[in-house]
Amino acid sequence: MVEVSMSAGKKAKASFEKVAKKKPDPMGLALGKKAQAALVQKDYASAKELFERAQAICEASVNKAMKTKRAKPSGSQEAEIKVAPANPKDDMANEVNLPQPGSDGHVIAKSKINLPRGAYNYAINTSSRLAEHLTATGGKWQTRFPPEPNGYLHIGHAKAMHFDFGVAEKYGGNTYLRFDDTNPAAEKQEYIDSILSSVEWLGYKPFKVTYSSDYFVKLHELAVQLIKNGQAYVCHQTKTETAVSRQVLQGFQLHCARNNLSRHETPLPAGAESPYRHRSVEENRIKFAEHPRSLDVHCIYPTYDYAHCLVDSLEQITHSLCTLEFETRQAPNGPYYWLLDALDMYKPITWEFARCNITYNVLSKRKLNVLVSQGHVNGWDDPRLLTLEGLRRRGYTPTALNRFCQELGVTRNDNIQHLERLEGCVREELEDEVDRRFAVLDPLPIIISNHPGGSLPVECPLHPKFPERGMRTLNFTQTVYIERDDFRESDDKSFYGMAPGKTVRLLFGYNITCVRVNKDDAGEIIFIEATYDETSLGTKPPKGTLHWAGLDFTHGEVRIYEKLFSVEIPGKRVADANTITGTQEEATGDDQNCDWLTQLNPNSLTVYQNALLEPAISKLTATWSTPRFQLQRLGYFTLDRDSTFHAPVLNRIVTLKESKELTFMRKSKK
């Protein structure tokens, strides 16, 4: 072994640090720490090797060091933000400046400089209520993650969890997992079970699991108290009538804003108020539907706007973190704080952040439900969906998803993320972690005419970059198989596959030369005849190198997933759908003149039912874990839950980074 000097180790370190400063990839930084430890221990050979590997990871990374935006005034809702921090271990507090429990920013739980003229700030805690809160919590930070159990969680919920749990964890606080189960007609135990499973899968441990329904009796008592105080009434307006009233009210608010009028001193126009506002009634949100938890005990259910703030207060939440669509409701003069003020209750700090939107996908639960219920996808866990169950089934790892959320950072600016960014996180993780295997999706037989018979062993590394992981043995048999797309009758210089008279290398194996093409009566190629060079094993390969299969390979099914939609922003007209400027309106894609379902990609799933798989893959079906591996030249794969030992089923997690070879092959086919 060649001796490595201290100077060489330090030189490798300096080179790594220069690259890591510009592209601080989390995996590269972690490897750099191991290299530094080896340097301290005077193991200069290991240190040099680790620094060089860490540098290579950072150079290939999509991460870039981000600059900190200028901080806003301390009294403003616009907190200091860092966009897309690169290191998962970065302090959550460095992303957003949130007030400490018990601080002045907690006394005035929400402030906003541009409140409407005459508006009152209801978000001010009394000294007695804040003291009671701090006594109950011991001054700890307390956040909550409040999903509605009316569907499966998706990647946007993963971002919210990362923020909710991350803030509390940073300060040694607690996070409640609270199910907002206020609409029994849309909720199922199936959804509750799925949410619990997804939260655990991502590695989060709630302080408590609670349900809004736990507080139904208390919420009813508070509603009665408001009615008795003359601060609430029961409304019988239909959904349509309510929408009309809201439109009139929105027009009134716009009129006041444009003319600098006080909304509190200007009379409301006709139709803005509910006709039931000044009447005494006995009903409120009647739903004769069985609740998943409280069954048929109640038939009156609270709205989200009513339950949200009250349960936050009852659970002593210090920081209620929500997406931007709740900003108006949680304004200092909005319903969130008005209700708490009217009932003389403790008021949590609220802060809003941008939703997670990703190209070629929809994350609206309403649209996801349409896809599932109308059969456009195969259930909530279809691997084409960005539901957490779908991503999990496809083979994504919780660490990759958490890293993606960390890299997104927390911002109040509407944004749309490219799908490739999410794919990059899992691809980079799997690159070094998983072993390599062979599979042929669309087999074309090749008969080796000069093969001696039986099988010739070919040694293949489990991972070419890490020879210490060992080797696996494949059998070079008299009949082998290559991909049908890897053969052409007409060769050209941009094609790296097999052609008549052309020699190619079977990956890690022998060189073979095509000598004859055999076709059926319809002109379809049924098999190729070739010869092999027995002296070529381990020699310099020719221009083309192909993956292959032997006679002992297992038959299985391989599912190749592509983008679910054919346009970047589903729901936008084709002329606009592939242009991203990052607004929330574009992210939702709600163009009334465009049917978003017509933009589904008809080729989002391709199934190869007669693929040939390396024998070791079948053995993985017996494991309890989720095996992942790279099928060389094809991508990263995992076993689907439909697999059996005799009939494995593979899902492609993500493609490989395209080599020049693959790019040429694709272009030449078009």
Can you give me a brief rundown of this structure?
The protein is an alpha/beta fold. The chain has helices at 6-22, 26-40, 44-60, 104-107, 127-137, 155-170, 189-201, 216-228, 239-258, 304-314, 335-342, 365-373, 388-394, 398-408, 419-433, 574-577, 584-588, 615-619, 660-669, and strands spanning 142-145, 174-179, 208-211, 319-323, 349-353, 436-437, 439-440, 443-448, 455-461, 471-477, 479-483, 503-506, 511-519, 525-533, 545-546, 554-561, 605-613, 628-631, 635-639, 649-654. 31% of the residues lie in helices and 16% in strands.
Q: Mean pLDDT, nearest integer? A: 86
Largest sheet: 7 strands, mixed
Amino-to-carboxy terminus distance: 50 Å
| Quantity of strands, as a count | 20
Name the helicity range: 25-40%
Can you walk through the features of this model?
Mean pLDDT is 86; it is low at 67-94, 280-285, 582-586 and 658-666. The protein is of the alpha/beta class and 670 residues long. The two termini are 50 Å apart. The chain has 19 helices and 20 strands. A seven-stranded mixed β-sheet has the order 6-18-19-20-16-17-7. A six-stranded mixed β-sheet has the order 11-8-14-13-12-15, with no helix packed on it. Strands 1-2-3 form a three-stranded parallel β-sheet.
